[in-house]
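dude i think i finally got it to work??
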Amino acid sequence: MLTVATDIDALSRFGRALADPIRCRILLQLREAPAHPADLADSLGISRTRLSNHLACLRDCGLVVTVPVGRRVRYELADARLGHAIDDLRSAVLAVADEKSCAEADEKDCC
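look at this
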């Protein structure tokens, strides 16, 4: 039973991270390469404060880690397998229903 609880916790954390479009964009960028927060904020077109809040969420979910680089901090995916999981999930969702979006569904029916 412990494995089921652990699996549910892991999927819930991943789902929470993916529930926000900005966090999805951050994960997609970090899938390509590690990045410094200032560079992420600029490339995503969001404030550093807003980015910081989303990075904190992703850290709390265990999906990204910080790596000290001199006096700066760089962010990267916590595990390379996360990049593969993002690719697989994106491909699977597009293959199943590429014409659907949660915006088209009632909130009570959507994840």
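The two ends are 25 Å apart (CA to CA).
im so relieved honestly
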